[in-house]
Amino acid sequence: MMSDFFTYFPLKHGRMHEVCGPNAVPFAFAFAGQVQSTVMWVAEEWHSSIINPVGFSIYLEPQNLLMAKVKNQDEGLAVAEESLRSGAVSLTVIELTKPLSFTAGRRLQLAAETGNCTGICIIPEGMGNNAAESRWRCLPIFDPQDSTLQRWEIIKNKSGTCAGWNVRWDAETRRIIVV
């Protein structure tokens, strides 16, 4: 089963992926840590949550994260599309609050292919777009000995089967460990 996980993660480059669930943000940061390059993170300014550099520094160096705060989802999609298309960053993450039209999802996919950049849409549970290469659901597993234990499931996959794994983040090596 371990070899199956590494067939799917790190995510396929030059494609858009989706992630939902309570651990969607740690999933995006874990992938960003694997990329080890500049990451563009797009979020609407009205969100009350703020990404804390101390919190995500176990995944990647804070100077490698560019934050874009936008007025609304349409502006965020435009910023994400430009970021993907430019190829200036290796990963673009966008937090979405409303469903995407197929056209908007396809535009992001084409931009990712053009810029050879990977994209991640953080979406609410039950919301997704058919243009995405894969969709992951990420859940915490409560364990008193390991606060990093998670359940990652592929719930949509254009390139293979759906599957799930229990994983944890190793901050020392900045790697995902399948348990």
Structure keywords:
179 residues, alpha/beta, 30% strand, Rossmann fold
Walk me through the structure.
The protein has 179 residues and is of the alpha/beta class. The chain has one domain (2-178): Rossmann fold (3-Layer(aba) Sandwich). It contains five helices and nine strands; from the N terminus they run αβαβαβαβαβββββ. The protein has helices spanning 2-8, 24-35, 53-56, 73-86, 102-115; strands at 16-20, 39-44, 65-70, 91-95, 118-122, 134-140, 150-157, 163-170, 175-178. Strands 3-2-4-5-1-6-7-8-9 form a nine-stranded mixed beta sheet, with helices on both faces. The longest helix is centred in the middle third of the chain and has 14 residues, at 73-86.
Ranges where pLDDT stays below 50 over 5 or more residues in a row are: none
At the fourth CATH level, what is the homologous superfamily? P-loop containing nucleotide triphosphate hydrolases
How many structural domains does the protein architecture include? 1
Q: What is the overall shape? A: globular
- Strand neighbour order, sheet with most strands: 3-2-4-5-1-6-7-8-9
Average pLDDT score: 92
Helix content: 25-40%
Major beta sheet summary: 9 strands, mixed
Radius of gyration: 15 Å
What is the CATH architecture descriptor? 3-Layer(aba) Sandwich
> Based on helices, strands and strand pairing, what is the structural class?
alpha/beta
What's the count of strands?
9
CATH class annotation: Alpha Beta
CATH fold field value: Rossmann fold
- Span between N and C termini? 10 Å
